[in-house]
């Protein structure tokens, strides 16, 4: 033990001391007083060492270990106290310095972002309560001053502090809830009031559960059976019913989801009390001429909504024996129908949930329930709320699962021919009757849903109907081994309904297209009605024409239409000319082989058309934008590849040249449209002014900025003018008529009108589709480990070329839509490279990162990096490289990059360093906003805050602007996403002690900056001179509030800030 003490006091690293303390606590026997007085002294010394380390260690991993070791120390202390050690009583009671330091640690870390660390603080708090109980054992510990003072101090804290709930729960378990309710009887209502905040709901519901369980146990032991339940209901159920009837929407939703199930699970008998109170409330108000608040309205659920919510939760958790008990004993048929068409959407959802949900998946669906479901669907398919639509579809799917599962039971009963009495627990009628009712019900539901898919029906109606039909097709499928299925959707599909589903592809909403496509794929042999060659040719030709439409949603329609023809093997026979190798189809793999063959034919056809269009676009981009925007073809190719399993191809020899040609075609297309996307002003290319004076001014502006544009776009524009007879001086009309002598693929010659918007849409969507295609190819296609490999489709050189492509366009594109989508594709590439076995490919992200950092630092005037538009795609590029780095490693790239960026983001007197500083600030903002970096970015928050505050004092506007954006990102990263509309809300705040313990470097920095601001106050006028950083400093300080330990400890106190703020 003496050697351990000397090691702890020696000059060794913090981590070594930390784990030495862990070994001391883990390996020594602290039970039964075997350690003696020297062991007790070692225990106290270990505590002081750990407290010292807690103020020094800030690395997240070591912080985690420290919290676990402190919790282990409290366990050892309890073991020593249980061995009746009188010498430690004074050192470990509630008023001792060690317990005070433990409380300080708990208060500082009870809202730490690491969940595991918060859990350790709970263990510590529970243990220190146990320690104090052991020191006062034999006395009446409940009125003990320590417990009283601790309870009152916790209750004085604001309810938005999450740690308060955890500590109160521990205190309830220790001293009982009755002593807390004696201080304030309204605590249950206060806790229910804060349940409108989603972030607090789990903590509040857990505390309420702990309290009402403890209270019931206490009342049962202290009070006669006839009276205690009424007192318990008054304390816990009555506030709940008030919230269900009168609370706001979020509050009621969270109470129903989190608190009500726990209450009913613990006290099922309380359901009768709730129903009685709510029925009485409804009956008392019915017939009044006012707005029937008990029945609810569009803004309020009322007592009827509360009744339905309680019954729904009770039935879903098995607290109602059967549906018969519900309808006959608890609620009338009229109330059910009233709930199904209630003005308030949640009342309708709860009533539907009461009908659909059950704790037994095989519970028979009664005839009354089926009639009510049909009644509900008639009036509720057109809900405008996405959340309500999702809940309706989810609940109906649960009902279909019940029908499917219970039908299997009924079928077995029917097959066994066993004579059941009417009182049978499963059904009161013959199984065959119930099965026929099921079949009729499902057919009726499908009839209603297909009737809702009429031409011109709204998006919400189509979404609901298609989603429900998809659920029916999914639930009532016929897998191998299943003997009986009560209903099959494909039996009710005729030519008319098939055509109705096909017409859903014409919707402008992609969600409707997806649902229609998925439903058609679930139906067996749906394309048999389209096997006529003329119809197939017309459908395929329509898809090709839609893929070149100037309306972006048309190419999405073309993609789903082509995929449908591919998977249904319904392509025109003429496409077989694109194949040079036939597919060898085994019986087991025949569907996959057919899909691969069809996909290859369609992609070759699309590429042939795309090649011709790119060639024409190279001569006239304006003509292409007006007549045949190329992004639709690329979108269809990507869509076809996404549906194909690219890791098990049979026609590898045919796919390899296709992939190579596809890459070259993508580069050619990108070259055509990149001058627009990389222009310093891509949003307008064709002058649209009809006024000759304003048009001449615009031309003058173009000539003035031409030498300053590093992308040579306007030189390219002149080339286009020469080739296409497009004269920028011809501004007599708001649109430009393109030369009509150009023929388009043999089509009828027509005059095309082109606008600036059409050109921009064509260009940025083309870049978007190329980026997504390249990213998908990198993610899905197997890479050749060696050039001689015969099963790979991408070579190492091709992957490098794709990386260079993304680098060029992310770093040079100005249009946000273009580089955001390029980022999506680049992320897929970097993820693949980090998992690649090829060492040269693994090193590529690191090489690209060093290259761009050097380019940022050099500040070369000829650099094409965009310093405006928040550095455009540069932050996205670096963000993709760092976020894809394996999190289980040491994150060396992140550490080195952050060090470089923070050094660049600091204040500088060199004007030439302004552009690198702006880039660094913008990149830091992107990195701090990236959730994938998680806690790995937290150690750099303090340095980032310093750079943002100091950058706000820069004389250069660009630096100040970027610093403001970085500061906003840091505030969100530190205090969380703002959820309250109130600027002074206490939800996104923390104590000053917690803030400065997590970021200790900011304590002296903010204090010094605040002193500097205070010194700028005009002594005569008494007004500040608007110091640049004053606003940022106050924004940080307003989010800090006093810690419960501020009165007992001066370290990291907010006190020194007060005089400067007052001045």
UniProtKB/TrEMBL annotation:
Domain tRNA (32-2'-O)-methyltransferase regulator THADA-like C-terminal TPR repeats region: 960-1062
Protein name (database record): tRNA (32-2'-O)-methyltransferase regulator THADA
Function according to Swiss-Prot or TrEMBL: Together with methyltransferase FTSJ1, methylates the 2'-O-ribose of nucleotides at position 32 of the anticodon loop of substrate tRNAs.
Coiled-coil intervals, chain numbering: 600-627
SUPFAM superfamilies assigned to the protein according to its UniProt record, in alphabetical order: ARM repeat (SSF48371)
Native species: Homo sapiens (Human)
A Pfam match: TPR_Trm732_C
Domain (DUF2428): residue spans on this chain: 658-958
InterPro entries in alphabetical order: ARM-like (IPR011989), ARM-type_fold (IPR016024), THADA-like_TPR (IPR056843), THADA-like_TPR_C (IPR056842), THADA/TRM732_DUF2428 (IPR019442), tRNA_methyltransferase_THADA (IPR051954)
Gene Ontology biological process terms from the UniProt entry: tRNA processing
Protein family according to the UniProt entry: Belongs to the THADA family.
């Amino acid at each position: 033990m003496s050697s351990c003490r000397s090691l702890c006091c020696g000059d060794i690293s913090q981590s070594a001391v930390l784990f030495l303390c862990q070994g001391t606590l883990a390996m020594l026997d602290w039970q039964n007083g075997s350690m003696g007085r020297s062991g007790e002294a070692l225990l106290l010394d270990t505590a002081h060492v750990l407290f010292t380390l807690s103020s020094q260690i800030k690395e997240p991993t070591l912080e985690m270990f420290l919290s676990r070791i402190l919790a282990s120390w409290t366990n050892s202390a309890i073991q020593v106290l249980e061995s009746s050690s009188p010498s430690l009583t004074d050192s470990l009671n509630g008023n001792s310095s060690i317990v005070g330091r433990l409380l300080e640690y708990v208060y500082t870390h009870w809202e730490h972002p690491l969940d595991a660390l918060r859990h350790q603080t709970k263990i510590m708090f529970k243990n220190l309560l146990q320690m104090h109980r052991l020191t006062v054992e034999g006395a009446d510990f409940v009125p003990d001053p320590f417990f009283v003072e601790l309870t009152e101090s916790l209750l004085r804290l604001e309810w938005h502090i999450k740690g308060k709930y955890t500590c109160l729960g521990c205190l309830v378990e220790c001293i009982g809830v009755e002593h807390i309710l004696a201080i304030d009887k309204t605590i249950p209502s206060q806790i229910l009031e804060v349940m409108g905040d989603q972030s607090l709901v789990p903590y509040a519901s857990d505390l309420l559960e702990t309290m009402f369980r403890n209270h019931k146990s206490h009342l049962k032991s202290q009070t006669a059976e006839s009276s205690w339940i009424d007192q318990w209901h008054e304390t816990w159920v009555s506030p709940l019913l008030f919230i269900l009837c009168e609370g706001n929407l979020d509050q009621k939703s969270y109470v129903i989801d989190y608190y009500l199930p726990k209450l009913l699970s613990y006290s099922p008998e309380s359901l009768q009390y709730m129903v009685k109170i709510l029925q009485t409330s409804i009956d008392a108000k019915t017939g009044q001429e006012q707005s029937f608040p008990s029945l609810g309205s569009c803004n309020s659920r009322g007592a009827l909504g509360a009744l339905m919510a309680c019954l729904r939760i009770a039935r879903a958790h098995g607290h109602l024996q059967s549906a018969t008990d519900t309808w006959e004993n608890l609620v009338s048929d009229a109330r059910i129908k009233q709930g199904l068409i209630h003005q308030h959407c949640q009342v309708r959802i709860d009533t539907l949930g009461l009908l659909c949900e059950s704790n037994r998946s095989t519970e028979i669906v009664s005839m009354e329930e089926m009639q009510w479901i049909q009644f509900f669907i008639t009036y509720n398919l057109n809900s405008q709320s996405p959340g309500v639509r999702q809940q309706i579809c989810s609940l109906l799917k649960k009902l279909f699962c019940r029908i499917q599962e219970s039908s299997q039971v009924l079928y077995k009963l029917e097959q066994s021919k066993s004579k059941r009495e009417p009182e049978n627990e499963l059904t009161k009628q013959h199984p065959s009757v119930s099965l026929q009712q099921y079949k009729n019900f499902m057919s009726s539901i499908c009839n209603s849903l297909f009737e809702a898919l009429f031409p011109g029906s709204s998006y919400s109606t189509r979404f609901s109907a298609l989603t429900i039909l998809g659920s029916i097709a999914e639930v009532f499928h016929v897998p191998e081994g299943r003997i009986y299925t009560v209903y099959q959707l494909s039996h009710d599909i005729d030519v008319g309904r098939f055509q109705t589903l096909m017409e859903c592809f014409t919707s402008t909403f992609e969600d409707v297209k997806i649902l229609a496509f998925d439903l058609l794929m679930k139906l067996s042999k749906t394309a048999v009605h389209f096997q006529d060659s003329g119809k197939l040719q017309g459908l395929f030709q329509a898809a090709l024409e839609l893929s070149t439409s100037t309306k972006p949603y048309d190419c999405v329609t073309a993609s789903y239409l082509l995929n449908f023809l591919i998977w249904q093997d319904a392509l025109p026979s003429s496409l077989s000319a694109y194949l040079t190798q036939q597919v060898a189809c085994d019986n087991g793999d025949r569907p996959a082989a057919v899909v691969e063959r069809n996909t290859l034919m369609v992609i070759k056809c699309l590429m042939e058309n795309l090649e011709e269009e790119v060639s024409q676009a190279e001569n006239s981009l304006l003509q292409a934008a007006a007549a045949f925007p190329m992004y639709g073809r690329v979108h269809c190719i990507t869509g076809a590849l996404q549906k194909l399993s690219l890791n098990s191809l049979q026609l590898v020899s045919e796919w390899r040249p296709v992939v190579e040609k596809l890459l070259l075609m993508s580069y050619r297309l990108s070259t055509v449209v990149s001058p627009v996307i990389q222009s310093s002003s891509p949003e307008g290319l064709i002058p649209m002014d009809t006024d000759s004076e304003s048009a001449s001014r615009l031309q003058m502006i173009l000539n003035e900025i031409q030498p300053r544009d590093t992308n040579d776009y306007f030189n390219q524009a002149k080339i286009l003018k020469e080739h296409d007879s497009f004269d920028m001086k011809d501004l007599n009309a708001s649109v430009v008529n393109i030369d009509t002598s150009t023929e388009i693929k043999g089509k009828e010659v027509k005059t095309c009108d082109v606008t600036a918007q059409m050109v921009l849409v064509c260009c940025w969507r083309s870049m978007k589709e190329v980026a997504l295609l390249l990213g998908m190819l990198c993610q899905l296609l197997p890479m050749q480990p060696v050039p001689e490999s015969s099963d790979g489709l991408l070579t190492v050189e091709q992957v490098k070329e794709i990386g260079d492509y993304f680098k060029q366009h992310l770093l040079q594109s100005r249009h946000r839509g273009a580089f955001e989508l390029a980022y999506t594709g680049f992320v897929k590439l970097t993820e693949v490279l980090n998992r690649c076995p090829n060492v040269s490919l693994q090193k590529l992200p690191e090489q690209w990162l060093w290259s761009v950092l050097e380019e940022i630092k050099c500040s070369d005037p000829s650099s094409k990096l965009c310093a405006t538009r928040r550095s455009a795609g540069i932050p996205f590029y670096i963000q993709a490289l760092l976020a894809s780095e394996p999190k289980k490693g040491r994150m060396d790239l992140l550490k080195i990059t952050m060090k470089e960026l923070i050094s660049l983001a600091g204040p500088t007197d060199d004007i030439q360093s302004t552009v690198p500083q702006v880039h660094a600030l913008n990149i830091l903002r992107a990195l701090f906003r990236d959730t994938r970096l998680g806690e790995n970015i937290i150690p750099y928050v303090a340095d980032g805050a310093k750079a943002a505050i100091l950058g706000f004092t820069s004389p250069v506007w660009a630096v100040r602007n970027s610093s403001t954006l970085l500061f906003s990102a840091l505030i969100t990263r530190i205090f969380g996403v703002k959820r309250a509309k109130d600027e002074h809300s206490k939800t996104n705040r923390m104590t000053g002690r917690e803030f400065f313990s997590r970021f200790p470097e900011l304590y002296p920095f903010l204090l010094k900056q605040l002193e500097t601001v205070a010194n700028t106050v005009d002594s005569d006028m008494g007004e500040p001179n608007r110091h640049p950083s004053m606003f940022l400093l106050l924004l940080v300080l307003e989010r800090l509030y006093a810690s419960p330990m501020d009165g007992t400890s001066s370290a990291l106190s907010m006190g020194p800030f007060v005089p400067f703020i007052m001045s």
